[in-house]
Specification:
One of its GO terms (biological process) is malate metabolic process. One of its GO terms (cellular component) is mitochondrion. Its cofactor is Mg(2+); Mn(2+). Among the domains are: about 150 residues, Rossmann fold (3-Layer(aba) Sandwich), CATH 3.40.50; about 250 residues, 3-Layer(aba) Sandwich (Rossmann fold), CATH 3.40.50. The chain is built from 24 helices and 16 strands. The strands form four sheets. It has a seven-stranded mixed β-sheet with strand order 9-8-7-10-11-12-15, with helices on both faces. Helix 15 crosses helix 22 and helix 22 packs antiparallel against helix 23. The model has no long low-confidence stretch (mean pLDDT about 95).
Length: about 600
């Protein structure tokens, strides 16, 4: 690939790649290894001629071979294990294989199969990958993080304490795999350099008795730490990250209900951090909502929203809707919040529920004085009273959106917007086919899992999937490239607008409310550019010389996105090599 106008940038991906490794050391470095695709010239220059077969393969030929090997695995978990092994050997081939078969591969490398791999982590373990920080050794945190590079070597740190993994609960040390999986998606979907990421498990013990009783369990064998000890450990980790990697972006993943929002709120005013369960789910849902209100002709400032399920995801979605209403209408966040009614196990959240509510739920609890003589214990009662434009489900209560509830809603609004988002499919509050039938095709819907198109008067209507992977990678890319000091509500709304602008439904009302995940890299370019522009506007960007012209900015972003392509290797001496050329970046094989 020829150098571009921006090939001088530190994260540029065009032009040759410096390499100080030779022989087996090069073959054992996943982000530079090409296997049978090393050219004859590279084989001679880097001492590989006797270490690889004679035939020089193209990347396409390698992908074909790897796909045949993938298909030969009979189970989803076996395919997941094969992909993990391939990633350990050749990262370009790994990512290219996934890109070429994205729809088929995504459920293998992420949910649901990754959940099974996490649950069996200690029994499937082969080699360490990632950073293991243990609450029993808090004094080791600073030294442990230093082993991963110099202050400029890490762009994203993904961390999890493993309390609420992918709907399967507390998985202890196995959470390192969810941190790894999230970083894979950042690379796959937004071109974050795979050797500039750091997956971390914050091993604070586990309350999963099955793991504690397992003689092969690899984590800290004690009940999960809580209270001041836990908070001090998290705080020490965050401060150590900021000290060692002052420009890195921190991604929180799968923390428990009582901690996820609390930790995010504690740190998001001082560091660039993001919680996908809280913000990512909210952003992708809001993007689908933006497209839906465009089709329906509603105004955001007048919208009435009922949120059924007020856990981490439900409150996160509510927050994003609240912030969007405030940004777009000029209302205060408190005023915007009054347009959202949250329903959970006690029924409509009321202030009199007191201590049974989490701190995040308290914000959305309604004054009891609003409901003195009104029924509010059931979702149907609330829908009758509120007459919402929008009904969103994150309750994991299958079939909760009944025909009676849906038709009650449809009596009062022209195009009911209904998003049953609970995962997996068996936990959906309703299925799209029923929603379409019960509303005579008027419903606008998006779901939390993939569904086939639904027939509406002889024409197929696409059902959008609210897949976080179409939004959080682009947000991360924009934050990394701009070196933003913070991630603000305005930046997230900018990201949502960029995603919503690519919704097929804007051109065809029967098309999906969100673009398909197969187009995710192009989507991420648009989202990243929007985030960067907002960061610059708000004086939060620390990177200099960011282009102001849209076309130039697009090229600037693309040049710094890692691609699943082999680059020509340029031999350099160890004395002049940086850490990347020496093969010491990335997360493989470091132990504490």
């Amino acid at each position: 690939m020829a150098p571009s106008k921006f090939s001088h940038l530190p994260l540029a991906t065009s032009g040759p790649q410096d390499c100080a490794l030779t022989g087996t050391a090069l073959l054992q470095t996943p982000y530079m290894n090409k296997g049978t695709a090393f050219t004859n010239e590279e084989r001679k220059e880097f001492g590989l001629s006797s270490l690889v077969p004679a035939r020089v393969n193209t990347l396409d030929e390698q992908v074909k071979r790897a796909y045949e090997q993938f298909q030969a695995r009979r189970t989803a978990l076996g395919k997941n294990t094969f992909m993990t092994s391939l990633k350990d050997q050749n990262e370009v081939l790994y990512y290219r294989l996934i890109q070429d078969h994205l729809k088929e591969m995504f459920p293998i490398i992420y949910t649901p199969t990754e959940g099974e791999a996490i649950a069996r982590y200690s029994r499937l373990f082969r080699r360490p990958e990632g950073c293991f920080l243990k609450i029993t050794d808090p004094d080791d945190i600073e030294a442990a993080l230093e082993q991963w590079g110099s202050p400029e070597d890490v762009d994203i740190i993904a961390c999890s304490d493993g309390e609420q993994i992918l709907g399967i609960g507390d998985q202890g040390v196995g959470a390192v795999l969810i941190s790894i999986a999230k970083l894979v998606i950042y690379t796959l979907c937004a071109g974050i350099h795979p050797n500039r990421t750091l997956p971390v498990v914050l091993d604070v013990g586990t309350d999963n008795q099955e793991l504690l009783d397992d003689e092969l369990y690899l984590g800290v064998r004690q009940p999960r730490a809580r209270g001041p000890e836990y908070d001090a450990f998290i705080d020490r980790f965050i401060k150590a990250c900021r000290k060692r990697y002052p420009r890195a972006y921190i991604h929180f993943e799968d923390f428990g209900l009582r901690n996820a929002r609390r930790i995010l709120d504690k740190y998001n005013q001082t560091i660039p951090c993001f919680n996908d369960d809280v913000q990512g789910t909210g952003c992708v849902t809001l993007a689908a909502l933006f497209a839906a209100i465009h089709v329906a002709g509603y105004s955001l400032k007048d919208l009435r929203v009922v949120m059924f399920g007020a856990g981490t995801a439900g409150i996160g979605i509510s927050d994003q809707i609240r912030d969007a209403i405030a940004v777009e209408s000029g209302k205060s966040r408190e005023e915007a919040m009054k347009q959202i009614w949250c329903v959970d196990k006690p029924g409509l959240l009321l202030r009199s529920h007191g201590d049974i509510l989490t701190s995040a739920q308290h914000d959305y609890a309604r004054p009891d004085s609003e409901w003195p003589d009104k029924k509010h214990n059931s979702l149907l009662d609330v829908v009758r009273q509120i007459k919402p434009h929008v009904l969103i489900g994150t309750s994991t209560r299958p079939g909760a959106f009944t025909k009676e509830i849906v038709q009650e809603m449809a009596k009062h609004v022209g195009r009911p917007i209904i998003f049953p988002l609970s995962n997996p499919t068996r936990l959906h509050e309703a299925v799209p086919e029923d929603l379409v039938h019960w509303t005579n095709g008027k419903v606008l819907t998006a779901t939390g899992s993939p569904f086939d198109p639904v027939d509406v008067n002889g024409k197929g209507r696409d059902i959008a999937e609210c897949n976080n992977s179409v939004v959080f990678p682009g947000i991360g890319l924009g934050t990394v490239l701009s070196r933003a000091k913070l991630i603000t509500p305005e930046m997230l709304v900018a990201a949502v607008k960029a995603l919503a602008a690519q919704a097929p439904a804007l051109k065809d009302p029967d098309a999906g409310l969100l673009p398909d995940v197969t187009n995710v890299r192009e989507i991420s370019v648009k989202i990243a550019a929007a985030v960067i522009k907002q960061a610059v506007q708000d004086d939060l960007a620390q990177e200099t010389n960011i282009p102001t012209d849209d076309g130039e900015l697009d090229a600037w972003v693309r040049e710094q996105m890692w691609k699943a392509e082999y680059r020509q290797l340029k031999k350099v001496s160890k004395a002049e090599a940086d850490r990347e050329a020496l093969g010491v970046l990335g997360s493989k094989g470091v132990m504490f």
